[in-house]
Amino acid sequence: MVTIAENFLDNKIFSIISEIARENGVRAFVIGGYVRDCFLGRPSKDIDIVVEGSGIDLATKVGEAVHSNVSYFPNFGTAMLKYKGIEVEFVGARRESYRRNSRKPIVEDGTLEDDQKRRDFTINAMAFSLQKEDFGALVDPFGGIRDLAAGIIRTPLDPDTTYSDDPLRMVRAIRFATKLSTAEREFAIVHESLESIKRNKNRMTILSKERIVEELNKMLVCDKPSRGFRLMDETGLLDYVLPQLVQLKGTETMDGKGHKENFSHTLEVLDNVAVLEKEAIAGGELKDSVFEDGVEVSKVRTEPNLWLRWAALLHDIGKPASKRFDPSAGWTFHGHEIIGARMIPRMFNELKMPLNEKMKYVQKLVSLHLRPIALVTEEVTDSAVRRLLFDAGNDIDDLMLLCNADITSKNPRKVERLKHNFVIVKEKLVEVEKKDEIRNWKNPITGEYVMQVFGIEPCREIGILKEAVKEAILDGVIPNSFEDADAFMRSKAAQIGLFPVEGK
User: What is the rounded end-to-end Cα distance, in angstroms, of the chain?
Assistant: First the structure.
């Protein structure tokens, strides 16, 4: 065994666990992601403890010692507590076996060695001893430290067995290759493991959509998420997860005219969003609306917006259905943003993803993603900017970021021109918003007010007047104020034969 020297176990919780384990005659080890991240120099707020004995019993006694509530998950044989902002999860060491038609294992009590064998990858099977006699010793039977240094994703046992037993590990292999890769060093899945994923891809059918999406979500918020989706495409997993993305692949030429390869373009946009959002977060430029005690407040964004990443991934999903060839113009994808927006609810439902405001946010960005691009190629009018602000509301900053990321071309002059014009649009947005206060605009004329002024019951004329006021404000015909809106409403009402009741 190798004793570590980097002070990875300085946190007091480790010595507390060590002492309580000794008093109760069990052996305890730190295992998995915390160990891996220590050697990678990555911060970690999750600690997994494996116990040769009852993990739940040890968690109970540690919870009493540190005065922390313990959450129990008896179906999984685990327990979790929080200690000074860190989540500590306890589980008993176990051995596992699998049935062919299920990824739920048959679990038996086991040793640390048994537990390490059941781990997904060598870099996640390393453990630190918490025994007094060898506190901090690295237990690494599969060479995880070597693989970590080499940037290798490898299974402890035969990959066919590992992936067939639990096919979610195939997606996890790709997720770790994506998450751990940096500009300085890429992590690669070893060849035999990649080939095994290709052989076992049909095992994806036994997985729940929720577990797959959990891995996709983690992949999407990585610094370079395209790496994961390219690997899923290379191994054939993407056909099972997001077949709509696969349909974006390929190009077609007719009469000497071709079109952009939309799959590669989508992944480029996704990476661009990751870069632009990271820069904007560092500059404190993005804000999110959250509810605190029932009150909506604006907070500076500090973490990537997962749903912005989904919008980037799906922004061109309607292109295959809208693809047409025009002999004079070449290939066109007219209306793909509308088709794509209509596809979002069905895709979210199939993936068992939320169908609430998060889905509606993605749908909104997909449906609007061409609007700012249209503004940079045409004259930027106040009216067009007002309408964009009105339709996007609080999501305007994310929409603009997505559209900026969507400016891609092999022609650097074209990109430079569009980026320059894009800056002009952003400046116009600030100018118009400051002057007209259109973001999250509400019509100053309500239906109740119309009924009161004209002494009428609910009818279609109310909608006509409200819509006329809205269009007049957005077109700049009248200022965005109640007084001007009221005067315009009365004038419009007279044209359709409505007049105020006496005294109104």
Answer: 89
